[in-house]
Every structure is written in C-alpha cells, then in structure tokens.
Design brief:
Blueprint lengths: L2 E6 L4 H12 L6 E8 L2 E8 L2 H6 L10 E7 L14 E2 L5 E9 L2 H10 L11 H10 L4 H10 L3 E9 L2 E10 L4 E4 L4 E4 L11 E4 L4 E6 L2 E6 L4 E2 L4 E2 L15 H7 L1 H9 L3 E2 L4 E2 L8 H6 L2 E6 L1 H18 L3 E5 H4 L11 E7 L5 H12 L3 E6 L5 H5 L2 E4 L12 H18 L6 H21 L4 H10 L4 E6 L4 H15 L2 E6 L16 E5 L6 H12 L4 E7 L11 E5 L8 H18 L18
Helix pairs in contact: 4-5, 7-13, 7-14, 9-13, 9-16, 15-18, 16-18
Bound molecules: fructose -6-phosphate (F6R).
Fructose -6-phosphate binds next to helix 9 and helix 16.
Length: 609
C-alpha cells in the first residue's frame, strides 16, 4: 500500500526517484508524485495514473536535487485525484511529505489545525502531517517531524524535506516499512530494498518508532523520544535479476516460471531426501514443546490463507494435530481462545507486512500463544515479531497476484509438518516417501512449463465467460479456492471456488451450457467422488475443464477439456495442480487486455486493515 522513495547526494536524483517508483509500483498505482529541492526551490509534480504518467510530466524536472522524495499511491483517504496524490505540502509550500500508512486521528487533527487558520487543500489524512511539521518547525526539521509524530495515532512510513534545510531528508517508521540504502556517496530511502539494489548492497532497516536524519555528511537515527540509536547495517542478499523481467512480458508469467527455482530455494539445505529427513533451523522448538503441541492455528489473508488451508489437511491427517485456519481479519477481533502451553499459531505472509496478519499476530502474542512465521520478505514486520520462523525464500514477488509465493508457502508448511512429524508420529516410511516426493517437485514443474500452449487455447475458449466455478475436494479444495481467486483478481471475471460436493447445495443452480467449471480430479482418495460431481455438472450441460493427473485418460469422456499434470503423492499434489490454474488466469487476463501485474483496485502489500 503506497511506495516511498527518497534520496540524498545523487547526481541523477530524478532517475532514482522515478525509477524507484516504477519498481515499487506494485504497492499502489493510482497516482504518483515527486518533490525535489534544487536551486533553493521545492519542485513538485503529481499525476493521476501510473508512474509513467508522472514521468511524462517530468521532462523539464531538474535531474539533480540536493534531496528528493517520491510516492506511488493506493488511495485510502480521499479519491484518486491529482490534489490527493503525494507529496503533500504545508501552507507555505516549503515542506513536502510522502506517507505510507493511515493517520487514524486525522479528523481531530484537521479540526484543530483548521481552527488555527490552516486551509486544507486535499481530502487525505497525510496533509495533517505536513501542517503539523510546519507548526513545530523552528530551525530543525528532524525535531519538527519528531514533535509532529507525537501527535499522530496510526501507522506511518514517512519522508519529509524542507526548503529551509535543503540538504536534509527526514524519515520515520511506525508500522509501514522503510529501508535506507547506504551508498558510497549517497543515501537512498525506499519502502523495500528493490529500488536500492542497483546502487548498493548495504542497507539499514528502520524499526518501528525510529526517526532518521540523512544528509550528505551521513545519517543519524533517533527514537521518537530523541534517544540516539546505533543502527545495524545489513548486506542485502537479493539479486538484481530478481526484479528484472528478462524475456517475459509480465512479472506474473516470470514468477510462474520462477517456481522450479524458487521451490529449490525453499527446500535447499532443509530437505534431506536421501536420508528421509528434514532440517529446519528456524522454528527452534524443543522436543518437549513439539510433544506438548495440541493445536495449530494458521493465520493469513488471501492466497496465504489458501496455503494455510492446504496445510490443514496435512497436519490433521499425518500429525494428528487439530488445525484451525483463520482469516487474520476475522481472528483479530474475535477474542480467540488460546491455550499457551499447547497451541502454536502460524502466520503466513508473502510481504510480512499485511496489517490484519500483523494485528492477529500481536493479538495472539498478547494472549501468550507461541508464534511462528512463514514469511517471504526477509526482515519484514511479521518476520521480526514472531517468536521464530521459516523464510520461504521464493525471491522477490512483484506481480500483484501471488504465484511463486503460494507454492513456496505450501512447500515450507510441508517441511514444517515433516519437521514436527519426525519427532512425533511419522514413520520412517512416510518421511522417506514425502521427502523424496517433495524433492522431485521443482523438476516436475520445470518439465510441465515447457509447453503451455494447451492452457493458452483453453484461455481463448473461456475468456468471454461471465462466471467460472472451481471445484476440488480434500487437498484440492484449497487449490480450487486459489484458482478462482487468481482468475477473479486479474481477469475481473467472477469465479467461485467450492468444495466439489458442496456445489449441490447452491452453486449448481448457476451451471448451464455457458458455465465453464474447472474440476480438479487428481487420482487420489476422493477421485471417484469428484467424478460423480462432474457427472452432475455434465448432466446440466456445464463445460467441464478437468485438471487431472497424467495417464488418467478416462476422464476425457466427461470433460470438455482435460489438463494433465504430473502425479505425486496426495498431500503435495497441490504444488502441481495450482500451476495450470495460475496460467489459465494469466492467459485469460492477457487475452482480455487486463493489466496483469497491476490489476485494478489492488496493491501487493495490504498495510491497511
Ligand atoms: C492474491 C494475493 C493476496 C495476498 C494477500 C496476503 O494473489 O496476492 O490475496 O495473498 O493480500 O498478502 P501477504 O501474503 O503478503 O500477507
């Protein structure tokens, strides 16, 4: 939700700021803006639409500024207009602010400031920050920002510049991430490390409640009560290629094709297939804790929630541990029952910044629950706040629709189940079979992705559908939910995921000759049952797209189209069945001219509740 960049000491500040916004555009893309101090002036441009629109307006914008900030927006308060785009200015036009987060008490602050004679120009919550900084400003911008932030309730990652101190960039964090890249002669601020990578591998992640003052002479960190802080410089381990499209037309397609590699990375050093064993350093659970475990609560949103559902089947069937999977947004306000001695709560998040997941984590921690994160973004808020965790190592995911992060989450959860199981009920036979099967998955996906023309053809045939139904049972039910989510979020076609048999209790009324029904019918224990459900669809003239395992040609008698995926053991088959569903959504969206990587109304990292 919103991306921020800022810089000090760059020869080509404009290039970093606009280029950085393009990299961060996945965080929000309804409007964008830039402010830079050059020749004793604050230069500001704002545009509605994507960063490219802003760039068009910046042909005559100065290349070099002493300091600069920029922002790409996902609107929360105030419509998508040029005025509401960031940066926001104080009344005199001397101070410019960009903000990611929400000022919860903005109404009260606005009233107060209006009483003092301030005339607001926008409907945003952020504008109050600019006026507050101005109100507290004497001759020290960092101090004025600090005092302003003491008045604010809510979340923020902010960057502020002022004409009166043209060499100073001030930033602060409470909830919304910020990282400072430490270059040879420059300092670079961003919402995540990606914009910084071409310039430096050295970075400092701001902690909540920290304030940064950056100048050409260096940087200083303070707490909001002005205590000086010595920050920790970290070496970024991301590679530049992870943010480059290469031969692919869209990040989503690139990330689908990344999956053999991203899954290798999730499993590397952890899965010992020859020995039928798993080593995980992250969870750090003692044998006593593992044996005392009596319930697992899995928490996430969207795709991450679906990955959690896949794990429920595995945990209950093989570990015999009751497992509840919860939407973070529901759990956080429900006063959940927690038994600290025997519960473990697992928080799944690609970004590690999802506001609801973070709040649910804090809620369960407050109740004394032990917590574990399954997170992709290293050093993100959730990764820092959980008691222990497993990084998914999927690499940077830029397409808004999650693909490789999902399969990495399912793989990490499977590793965790094996990690628990080896000290609990798993026989060596089960361990051997599961580890060997998991080890083969990256190659199976790689082989599958060699030729996807069939999926493209099916996409052509369903692209004009108004509704789609996705059905699955058992381990394939979460895959059906995930397939439907992918379809609706990037193609804007209504799609519903349903347990195959449950479909009789309502959704079957939707089925007619125009209704494509994706039925996941892999050769497993529920196969015959799913086939019966397919018969029910066919009897009502539904067009069945069957996703089945190789060799299962019988199904062609029932299906309108059949997609074959390689076969593996039932608990990890979702890692294979999810791939054609990602591709189907992708090709339908492309054929319908959608903005695949930046679908409307969405943003990659949902940092508001
Ligand atoms: C869908 C999608 C979202 C995210 C959800 C949670 O493709 O990407 O549903 O899965 O917003 O995000 P994270 O995993 O970052 O917590």
């Amino acid at each position: 939700m919103c991306g921020i960049v800022g810089c000090v000491g760059l020869e080509d500040s404009k290039n970093y700021l606009i280029g950085g916004l393009k990299v961060l555009e996945y965080r929000g893309y309804d409007s964008a803006g830039i402010a830079m101090i050059a020749d004793d002036e604050v230069h500001v441009r704002k545009a509605v639409g994507m960063v490219a629109e802003l760039e068009k307006m910046c042909h005559d914008f100065p290349r070099k500024g002493s300091v600069g900030i920029a922002h790409t927006r996902w609107a929360t308060h105030g419509g998508v207009t040029q005025d509401n785009a960031h940066p926001h200015m104080d009344a005199a036009g001397n101070i410019a602010v960009v903000h990611n987060g929400i000022v919860e008490n903005h109404n009260a602050l606005r009233t107060l400031l209006e009483r003092e004679g301030i005339k607001f120009k926008t409907q945003t919550d952020t504008e109050v920050i600019a006026h507050l900084v101005s109100k507290f400003y004497e001759d020290d911008l960092a101090e004025a920002v600090r005092l302003a932030l003491r008045e604010i309730r809510g979340t923020f990652g902010i960057a502020v510049i002022s004409k009166k101190e043209p060499n100073v960039l001030v930033a602060a964090r409470m909830g919304s991430p910020l990282v400072l890249g430490v270059g040879k002669d420059c300092l670079l601020l961003a919402s995540d490390a990606a914009p910084i990578l071409p310039y430096t591998q050295q970075a400092i992640y701001l902690n909540n409640g920290e304030l940064l003052k950056a100048t050409p002479q260096g940087y200083e960190f303070f707490s909001l009560d002005r205590t000086s802080i010595t920050p920790k410089i970290e070496e970024l381990d991301q590679q530049l290629e992870s943010i480059e499209l290469g031969q692919f037309p869209h990040y989503m397609l690139k990330e689908i094709y990344d999956q053999p590699t991203s899954l290798e990375n999730t499993l590397r050093g952890r899965l010992k297939a020859e020995a039928g064993d798993v080593h995980l350093g992250g969870p750090g659970l003692s044998l006593k804790t593992i044996h005392a475990l009596n319930r697992v609560i899995i928490v996430g949103c969207g795709t991450s929630f679906h990955a959690g559902l896949c794990a429920k089947y595995l945990f209950e069937e093989f570990l015999r541990i009751p497992c509840e999977v919860e939407y973070a947004s529901e759990l956080r306000y429900r006063n959940p029952i927690v038994r600290p001695k025997s519960d473990l709560a697992i928080f799944i998040s690609q970004s590690g910044e999802t506001a609801d997941t973070l709040a649910a984590l804090r809620e369960l921690q407050r109740k004394g629950c032990r917590t574990l994160g399954i997170v992709n973004v290293v050093n993100s808020s959730i990764a820092r706040e959980v008691d222990s965790g497993i990084y998914t190592h999927a690499g940077m995911e830029i397409g808004v629709a999650s693909t490789k992060a999902f399969t990495a989450q399912v793989a990490a959860l499977t590793l965790f189940a094996l990690y628990l199981g080896r000290s609990r009920d798993f026989s060596s036979f089960v361990l051997q079979e599961m580890t060997e099967s998991l080890a083969k998955i990256p190659t199976l996906i790689e082989d599958y992705l060699v030729d996807t023309t069939q999926i493209e053809d099916i996409a052509e045939e369903v692209r004009n559908a108004r509704n789609l139904l996705y059905l699955g049972r058992g381990y394939q039910y979460p895959v059906a939910l995930e397939g439907a989510l992918k379809m609706k979020e990037i193609s804007y076609i209504h799609a519903e995921g349903y347990p195959a048999a449950e479909m009789k209790h309502g959704p079957i009324a939707l089925v007619d000759e125009n209704m494509p029904v994706v039925a996941i019918a892999t050769r497993d224990r529920t196969y015959e049952k799913v086939v019966s459900n397919m018969q029910e669809i066919k009897a009502r003239n539904g067009k069945i797209i069957a996703v089945t395992t190789e060799g299962n040609t019988d199904i062609e008698k029932l299906a309108w189209r059949t997609i074959y995926v390689p076969h593996t053991i039932e608990p990890i088959q979702p890692l294979l069945t999810s791939i054609p569903l990602q591709l189907l959504a992708y090709y339908v969206a492309v054929k319908n001219g959608r903005n695949v990587d930046k679908p409307r109304n969405l943003a990659k990292s949902v940092t508001v509740e």
